Amino acid sequence: MEGYEHAAMADPFARAVSFFMQLIADLSGPDTLSLPHQVVEETAAKQGRELARLLLQAHLDLRAHREETRLRKLDGTARAALADGRTRLECGHHRELATVVGTVTVARCALRSPGRPNAYPADAVLGLPRERHSLGVRKLAVLEAVRGSYDTALEAVTRACGKVAGKRQLEHLVRAAAVDVAAFYAARTPQPASASTLLVLSADGKGIVMRPAHLREATRKAAERARRTFRTRLATGEKTGRKRMATLAAVYDAEAAVRRPHDIIAPPGGRSDTRTPRPGPKARAKWLTGSIEHDPDHVIAAAFDQAAARDPQHQRCWVVLIDGARHQREVIQAEAARRDLRIHIVLDIVHVIEKLWAAARCFYPATDPDAEHWIAAKAARILRGCADRAADEIRAEADDRHLAAEDRTGVDKVCQYLHHNADFIHYEKALASGWPIASGVIEGAARHLIADRLDITGSRWSVPGAEAVLLVRVVQANGDMPQYWDFHLHAEQHRLHPAADKVNYKLTA
To answer: Which of 18, 316, 416, 482 lies at a 20 to 30 A Cα distance from 39?
Structure first.
């Protein structure tokens, strides 16, 4: 591959043409014809990327030559109009640009004025970023970094583009790529739905392991005060004090689906084969949001904004699914009151059943199948609207068995849970109205958005880094990445190169 080095440089594409001809000669030579296919494949891929880099470099060189020719023909007045009063032309300025096919050099002309920074008209025409990495590299880095660890992302980027970035640079590129997410969703108008379609909201929290300096103040102080029982592990009930809670919220549409209690949970003894359970409401047009930087109030307000955009006249039935967290419920109620909204809050039935399982262990051994029948009977009673009666029966059973205080913890917790959430467990009304009663959408989002990426083994996050990854994963989960990337590129172009900087100026190849 030495022939292309001596190609004539009068034509910017001459070097690429020479390289291509030499590549053909090498691939058709007798030595190459005896090689196994994987060696030839690797050579073709590697040299093909170098050919693409040479073509891109030649294109940029051609544009630089034409820019210099054009600017030399302009008089001082035209240059001043082009670069906000700068009239002095200086050619031969260069900057490197790391692209998906390798690093190239961009030559461009500077328009100068004493005491002012240089203006580079070609930067605006080419849409060059402030950093040395092209927008193509940035997009690839973002897609890889939000899919897996930064180490694997760096390997993928290096494999595809060559050594164009380091790990810290990838982190910076992801942060830069997430800056327009809020503006993107503020500018979008959701698809409308009929007044009979349910509008469902849900929120949840998920902890993320943070660097000590990025913990919330209360968590950091609690971790400093904590006294550990063991040196090498946590005792029961002890917390690591290393996590900061991220808040997630979901908004979606669903058609009402009327059901009965036995459609939700099988009766004691199991279901018969003669009756198929009625399906619940199916979520569609799902929209997710989340933040670790902002408090739950901010995220829940964003979810209400999205819901209001879907139903600005408040003609639809708003159902809000909660998991029993008191602060979350109070924030939701305060937000609804501030907007003068009528909402229907429903406690997630899955959390109720989990509490029932904890209570069942007070009465049955862990492997006793009778525990399942007991839970089915109590859950069916709760679903029929008799939660108070179910709690009384559970408490009475514990009294009859004369359980000690330490042996009836699960019983006391489920009874207390049902009592504190009595206003939100009217499942008989929810089922008759066709509302969802389980928060599977937001639970799944917590696993997908956070656990699959931000909770990988060994990771510790800063707030800006975790926030950027979470926001981009939200955009991906919403299926909006292509539209967001176009929006982001337009916003980036406007930030770096306002329209006034390129009036009546075109750089053509």
So the answer is: 18
Specify whether 166 is located in the same domain as 106: yes
424-435: pLDDT as tens digits: 999 999 999 999
103-114 burial by CB neighbour count: b if 16+ within 10 A, else e? Answer: bbebbbbbbbbe
**Residue 296 sits in which domain range?**
194-347+438-482
Task: Identify whether the C-beta of residue 126 lies closer than 8 Å to the C-beta of residue 159.
Answer: no
Cα(125)–Cα(71) distance, integer angstroms? 14
| Centroid of chain to Cα 408 | 42
Mean pLDDT on 196-212: 93
**Count H helices, E strands: the chain?**
21, 7
What CA–CA distance (Å, rounded) separates 364 from 361?
5
Q: Are residues 118 and 237 in the same domain?
A: no
Strands (E), 55-211: 88-99, 102-112, 198-209
Look up the pTM and report it.
0.85
Q: Is residue 364, in this structure, part of any structural domain at all? A: yes
pLDDT, residue 269, reads 67
The Cα–Cα gap between 229 and 504 comes to 73
pLDDT single digits (tens) 29-83: 998 999 999 999 999 999 999 999 999 999 999 999 999 999 999 988 888 888 8
On whether both 203 and 64 belong to a single domain, the answer is no
Assigned token pair, 425: 């467990």
Residue 228 is predicted with a pLDDT of 60
